[in-house]
Every structure is written in structure tokens, then in C-alpha cells.
């Protein structure tokens, strides 16, 4: 049995006794301004997304049951090459996160690399170089391929790495399916009427990653928190990361005819798509952006509650992601909220300086907050 499963197991026993009922929450923050309207306060209840069921399956599935009928025979050298390829892709496209993964145990490193690569390949179906050939059929076939992968029938080397990971950790297939649903949404929608719709999209394309990785990261045996609260924190980090991506890329997305901003909230500040396309940074735009940034920061604050309660070998990459994405929000502010003609850029030096800071946070006592 893997070390991550053992770590999770000890927490599960406590959680079963202390928390029979899982409650996964969706919370949204909005700035209060006396002269301007408030943002929407409503989110998507996680019960509607069946997140609770995913968490329960990943926590309460016995390891022997999890492995039942999932035992393909892989050549060890082939499997090692598969993980090496996943490692190389992660190192090339997610440099800061990759550095963090190097402090994990070897088994967890490999699992996170395999999950990252599958998520990246899924995203590239819509945003990659071959996205012009995207169709509903392509995504349907990709989902069928996912089913095969979970049933021990990988299509290629990279799939094989994830198939092996699925055997070692109690991963539920639904978050993977949900991410594919997010890609379907991207092919059908280029506008989001309100934050409820945008939250749903953020869950599909980023919150799902949190659900995939918590079983791999593991929960600290010393943590007194219920597992549900740690999943809540992980989901908050995923939502915060995606909101930050959206705010960073407003100008670039507009060039593709996409506006990932709540239409009703734009209207509250006297803005519309034409203001985005005209690339004019007005006072109303700045006020609107302040509210959106505050919302993203709210989720990062929520994420802190669980970041230091993961297994000690997994905390550093999580804190790295959290602090780095916060820095992107700072960069938007430093650009005077001009994310229409400028890209919020965090230089390599600043990224490297963030690593020792994130490491310090990762070894702090659980529950320590940094704002």
C-alpha cells in the first residue's frame, strides 16, 4: 500500500468518528463599496456538482477494492520511460510547480506528473495547436479513452503512466470526466452571464484538479482537521488559480472572441464587451477589476486553511502555487489594472525568491495564516 494511502487512512478513521456528514461549501466574496454596486454573492453549491460523493469515494474506498480488476502488466522499463516523459513535460511547461514536486516522495512525484500531463493534454484539445479540428466527437472519444485508461487499457505511453497511478491511489474518475465537460463548455460558450456560470466553469477546468490531487498529496496524520475541510481548501485553491488565470489573460482571450467575465457584473460598473475589445482602461474598469481581484484573493485565503495540513512532503508545491498566483494578482495592480494591453508578468527572479518563502510556509505549524 502506498505511503499516501497510509497517511490518508489514519485521518479517515478519525474523520469517520468525528464527521459523519460531509459538507463541501462554495463561497464567494465581493468587495463592499458605498458608491458602487456589490458583486454577486451566490456560487454553485457543491452538492449540485456531486463533489461530496467524489470525496467520500476517494476517502472510503478500500485499497483492495480500488485495485480490483485494474492490474495490467507493464514492462518496468516501459513504465519508467512513461513517467520520465511525464516528468519532462511537467518540467518544461510548469517549471515552478515542477520544482516543488521534487520534494515529494518518488511515488507521489510520478503520480502528480501523470495527472498534470493528462490535464494538459485535455486542455490542449481546445486550446492547443490542433484546436481548429476540435469537435464534440473528439471529446467523446477522449472520454472513452479515459474510461479505458481507468479500466487498465491505456492507449499510449502517457496514458499508461496515469493507469499505473490510478492503481496506486484512490482516484475517482468523475473529476476527470468533469474536466472534459469543462472543455465541452469551452467549445459552446464564450460568455458567462453571471458568477454562478463562471464558477461552474472554474470548477470544471480547475477545481477538478484539486479533487484529483488530494489523494496523491495525502493528508498529514498530525492534522486534527476533518478531511472535508482540506478538500474545501484544495477546491478554493483551484478556483482561485483559475480566476487569476482569467484576470491575467483578459486581453489575450478577447483576441479569441472570449470574455471570461460575469456579464452582469460588468454591467453593474457600466461596462460591456465593447469596453474589453476597445482595450481602454477606465476608472470604471479599475473599480471592476479591484472587486474581481478581491474575490480571487478570498479563495487563496480559504486555501491556506488546508495547505499546511497536507502530508509534509506535499506542502511545498501547494504553497508555491498559492503564493505565486497571489503575485500575479499583485502584478495586475502594479500595471494599474491594465490587463487589456499588458500581461501580468512574474519574472524568473521573483519566482525563485518565492520558493524559499513558500517552503517556510510549508514547514510552519498547520493553521498558520499568511495574508
TrEMBL record:
One GO term describing the cellular component: plastid
Entry keyword annotation includes Transmembrane helix: yes
- Which GO molecular function terms does the record list? 15-cis-phytoene synthase activity; geranylgeranyl diphosphate synthase activity; squalene synthase [NAD(P)H] activity
| Pathway where this protein functions | Carotenoid biosynthesis; phytoene biosynthesis; all-trans-phytoene from geranylgeranyl diphosphate: step 1/1
Please, which domain of life does this record's source organism belong to? Eukaryota
> Its catalytic activity?
2 (2E,6E,10E)-geranylgeranyl diphosphate = 15-cis-phytoene + 2 diphosphate
Report the record's Gene Ontology biological process terms: carotenoid biosynthetic process
Give the EC number(s) under which this enzyme is classified: 2.5.1.32
Keywords on record: Carotenoid biosynthesis, Isoprene biosynthesis, Membrane, Transferase, Transmembrane, Transmembrane helix
Cross-referenced InterPro entries, in alphabetical order?
Isoprenoid_synthase_dom_sf, Squ/phyt_synthse, Squalene/phytoene_synthase_CS, Trans_IPPS_bact-type, Trans_IPPS_HH
UniProt-listed Gene3D superfamilies: Farnesyl Diphosphate Synthase (1.10.600.10)
Q: Which CDD domains match?
A: Trans_IPPS_HH
Q: Which Pfam families match?
A: SQS_PSY (PF00494)
The record lists the membrane-crossing segments as 198-219
Instruction: Describe the family membership recorded for this protein in Swiss-Prot or TrEMBL.
Output: Belongs to the phytoene/squalene synthase family.
Q: Which PANTHER family match?
A: BIFUNCTIONAL LYCOPENE CYCLASE/PHYTOENE SYNTHASE
Protein name in UniProt: 15-cis-phytoene synthase
Amino acid at each position: 500500500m502506498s505511503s499516501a494511502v497510509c497517511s490518508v487512512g489514519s485521518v479517515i478513521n478519525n474523520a469517520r468518528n468525528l464527521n459523519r456528514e460531509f459538507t463541501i461549501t462554495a463561497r464567494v466574496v465581493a468587495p463592499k463599496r458605498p458608491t458602487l454596486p456589490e458583486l454577486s454573492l451566490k456560487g454553485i453549491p457543491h452538492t449540485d456538482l456531486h463533489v461530496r460523493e467524489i470525496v467520500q469515494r476517494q476517502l472510503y474506498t478500500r485499497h483492495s477494492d480500488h485495485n480490483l480488476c485494474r492490474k495490467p502488466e507493464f514492462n518496468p522499463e516501459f513504465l519508467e520511460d512513461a513517467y520520465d516523459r511525464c516528468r519532462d513535460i511537467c518540467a518544461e511547461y510548469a517549471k515552478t510547480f515542477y520544482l516543488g514536486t521534487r520534494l515529494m516522495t518518488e511515488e507521489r512525484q510520478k503520480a502528480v506528473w501523470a495527472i498534470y500531463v493528462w490535464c494538459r493534454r485535455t486542455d490542449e484539445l481546445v486550446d492547443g495547436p490542433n484546436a481548429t479540428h476540435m469537435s464534440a466527437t473528439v471529446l467523446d472519444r477522449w472520454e472513452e479513452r479515459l474510461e479505458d485508461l481507468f479500466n487498465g487499457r491505456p492507449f499510449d505511453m502517457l496514458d499508461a503512466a496515469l493507469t499505473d497511478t490510478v492503481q496506486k491511489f484512490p482516484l475517482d474518475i468523475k473529476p476527470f470526466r468533469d474536466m472534459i465537460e469543462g472543455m465541452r463548455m469551452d467549445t459552446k460558450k464564450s460568455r458567462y452571464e453571471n458568477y454562478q456560470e463562471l464558477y461552474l466553469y472554474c470548477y470544471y477546468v480547475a477545481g477538478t484538479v484539486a479533487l484529483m490531487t488530494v489523494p496523491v498529496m495525502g493528508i498529514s496524520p498530525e492534522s486534527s482537521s476533518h478531511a472535508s475541510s482540506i478538500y474545501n481548501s484544495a477546491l478554493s485553491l483551484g478556483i482561485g488559480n483559475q480566476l487569476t488565470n482569467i484576470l491575467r489573460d483578459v486581453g489575450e482571450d478577447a483576441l479569441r472572441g472570449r470574455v471570461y467575465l460575469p456579464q452582469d457584473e460588468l454591467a453593474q460598473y457600466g461596462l460591456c464587451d465593447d469596453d474589453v475589445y476597445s482595450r481602454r482602461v477606465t476608472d470604471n474598469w479599475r473599480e471592476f477589476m479591484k472587486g474581481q481581484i478581491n474575490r480571487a484573493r478570498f479563495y487563496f485565503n480559504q486555501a491556506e486553511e488546508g495547505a499546511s495540513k497536507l502530508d509534509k512532503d506535499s506542502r511545498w508545491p501547494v504553497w508555491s502555487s498559492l503564493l505565486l498566483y497571489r503575485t500575479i494578482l499583485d502584478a495586475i495592480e502594479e500595471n494599474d489594472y491594465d490587463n487589456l494591453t499588458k500581461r501580468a508578468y512574474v519574472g524568473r527572479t521573483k519566482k525563485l525568491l518565492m520558493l524559499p518563502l513558500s517552503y517556510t510556509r510549508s514547514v510552519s505549524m498547520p493553521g498558520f495564516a499568511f495574508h
